[in-house]
Amino acid sequence: MVAPPAAGQIFGERLPLAEAYVRMLERSGVERGLIGPREVDRLWDRHVLNSAVVGDRVASGARVIDVGSGAGLPGVPLAISRPDLSIVLLEPMARRVDWLNEVVETLGLEITVVRGRAEERVIRDQLGHADVVTARAVAPLAKLAQWCLPLVRPGGVLVALKGASAAEEVERDQLAVHRSGGGKAEIVECGGGLLETPTYLVSIERTQAETKSQARKRQRRGRE
């Protein structure tokens, strides 16, 4: 599959890595349950470029956790386009963790792959206090905030890739987001000047800091 012109602008000299990633998805993505059969012809625009432009909302050198990474979206395209980032791919399913490890090894990316769920205490103790947590097609916004905001440092952000449902979810779930420690959910457009269909993100800042009691409990769990 030939890369569209926007791919060269987004990935620059690292375009060959993005092309290799797309080839891996083409060869085994459907067979391994990572993408649907109808998605193969839309890998670049709908998945890879759609994910890479998330980098527009991530500061230089940020520590990023990609929750429910699955096929590596958006984490792998983000790592390719932004090698300055420290990225962890968090995925609960063993077969998908195997796939992600294959991608990381084949492409030579400096990414950490962890098996687990965002809501697990051990994962929060191990990975918490990230600058940015990303999630794509994981859960409705209320659940996502509950699971993911504890992984975000105060002042950091949860970035959820959403489609047409973004405005509806923000209106419906804002109270639940606040209860989970988040500020006002904002809808942000990325890639509008490059992509035929821009990526729409819901960005939520973590506004509530961890209490001393919560910190002591987390530290005790880490020593157990």
Structure explained in plain terms:
This protein is α/β, with parallel strands linked by helices. It has one domain (5-223): 3-Layer(aba) Sandwich (Rossmann fold), CATH 3.40.50. 42% of the residues lie in helices and 21% in strands. It contains nine helices and seven strands, in the order H-H-H-E-H-E-H-E-H-E-H-E-H-E-E-H. It has helices at 5-11, 15-28, 43-52, 75-81, 94-107, 121-127, 141-148, 166-179, 212-223; strands at residues 63-67, 86-91, 111-115, 130-136, 152-162, 186-190, 199-205. The chain has a seven-stranded mixed sheet with strand order 3-2-1-4-5-7-6, with helices on both faces. Helix 5 links the parallel strand 2 and strand 3. Helix 6 (121-127) crosses helix 9. The longest helix is centred in the first third of the chain and has 14 residues, at 15-28. The chain is globular and about 45 Å long. The N and C termini lie far apart (50 Å). 42% of the residues are buried.
Entry summary:
This protein is α/β, with parallel strands linked by helices and 224 residues long. It is built from nine helices and seven strands.
Reported for the largest beta sheet, the result is: 7 strands, mixed
Rg (C-alpha, Å) = 17 Å
Number of domains: 1
Number of H- or I-type helical stretches: 9
- What is the count of β-strands? 7
- Proportion of strand residues: 15-25%
Overall morphology: globular
Strand neighbour order, sheet with most strands: 3-2-1-4-5-7-6
